[in-house]
Amino acid sequence: MQPYDERLTVPRSWWFLAVVGGIGCALVALPFGTLPLLGVFVGATALFLALVSSYGSARIRVVAGSLVAGDAKIPVAALGEAVALDPEEARAWRSYKADMRAFMLLRSYVPTALKVEVTDPDDPTPYLYLSTRSPERLAAALRTVRTS
Predict the structure, then answer these.
(1) Do the Cβ atoms of 54 and 123 come closer than 8 Å?
(2) Which of 37, 56, 112, 115 is the most interior residue, by most CB within 10 Å?
(3) Partner residues linked to 67 by β-bridges
(4) φ/ψ bin of 106: left (φ > 0), alpha (ψ from -120 to 50), beta (otherwise)
(5) With contact defined as beta carbons under 8 Å apart, do 119 and 79 qualify?
(6) Taking the domains of the chain in order of start, what are their residue ranges?
(7) Exposure b/e, 40-53, CB count within 10 A at least 16 = b
């Protein structure tokens, strides 16, 4: 059983905007007739939907003694203190407080985040910044894995 698993899905409005983008592209093909209009609509909408799906497929998991965030897999033993960030603090840490060496899994549509210190002396990354809808739950999952 995994103590934590979250997919950072995009808001529903983004799916609507992908279809609107397909309609906009189709309107460019309007002077060429109905068939090109439909072809461009289907192709552009499929492309926009794939892009939205890809962007919203980022996952954060705590599994088998590791934190998996996007493409990164970090052993929990190499992590230190985890601090839950409210929307205001999260905004600060992804802008003027940010360290360029930090690993950041950012999603602008997720207002809260978790900042996790990296304690591995061989790793130049000072901390992880993870956009998450439930930072307290993720911090608790990391503590649970670390103590077991």
Answers:
(1) no
(2) 115
(3) 62, 74
(4) beta
(5) yes
(6) 4-55, 62-147
(7) bbeebbeebbeebe
Query: Model pTM greater than 0.90?
Result: no
What does the alpha-carbon distance between residue 33 and residue 5 come to, in Å, rounded to a whole number? 48
Question: pLDDT (tens digit, 0 to 9) for every residue of the chain, 148 residues total?
Answer: 458 999 999 999 999 999 999 999 999 999 999 999 999 999 999 999 999 999 888 999 999 889 999 999 999 999 999 999 999 999 999 999 999 999 999 998 999 999 999 999 999 999 999 999 999 999 999 999 988 7
Beta carbons within 10 angstroms of residue 121's beta carbon: 7
Task: Please name every residue paired with 118 in a beta bridge, in sequence order, or none if there are none.
Answer: 79
Backbone angles phi and psi of 146, in degrees to 5: -65, -40
Amino acid in the structure at residue 78: A
Which amino acid is located at 56 in the chain?
G
Tokens of 98: 């940010």
Q: Which of 90, 113, 109, 95 is nearest to 52 (CA)?
A: 109
φ/ψ of residue 46, rounded to 5: -60, -40
